[in-house]
Write a structure and sequence with these properties.
This protein is mainly α. The chain has one domain: Orthogonal Bundle (Helix Hairpins), CATH 1.10.287.1080. Helix content is 61%, strand content 0%. The protein is built from 4 helices and no strands. α1 crosses α3 and α2 packs antiparallel against α3. The longest helix is centred in the middle third of the chain and has 22 residues.
Length: 112
């Protein structure tokens, strides 16, 4: 596994969603997470979603355990995004294409 100095990770300015997916694919290999199963990654995604929810609660001053770890909403949102990218890559999903296709379906729905 490479250390930060040897990192091959690079994300250009104004990246596309495909750039993020490519970055995540490199990140997984570089950090030694390329042997995780989809189930393992899904559980990690759910864990990060919980941390995002807790951070959001704290940011909105919703009552919570005063002794619990302090979370940063932006960092937790980024962690959720990273795990989503990992799962999409592992399942061969082009997230941009999937987003566009799903939005075409959603545009036909009547929202009340």
């Amino acid at each position: 596994m490479n250390n930060a100095v040897d990192s091959k990770l690079f994300l250009k300015d104004n990246p596309t969603l495909a750039d993020f997916q490519e970055y995540a694919a490199t990140l997984v290999k570089e950090r030694g997470f390329d042997h995780e199963t989809v189930a393992e990654r899904f559980m990690l995604l759910m864990e990060e979603c919980g941390e995002l929810a807790k951070a959001a609660r704290k940011s909105q001053n919703i009552k919570s355990d005063a002794n619990s770890k302090t979370y940063h909403v932006d960092e937790e949102a980024a962690d959720v995004f990273i795990y989503l990218l990992h799962i999409c890559n592992q399942l061969g999903i082009d997230l941009e294409q999937a987003f566009r296709a799903k939005e075409e379906i959603n545009k036909q729905r009547i929202w009340q």
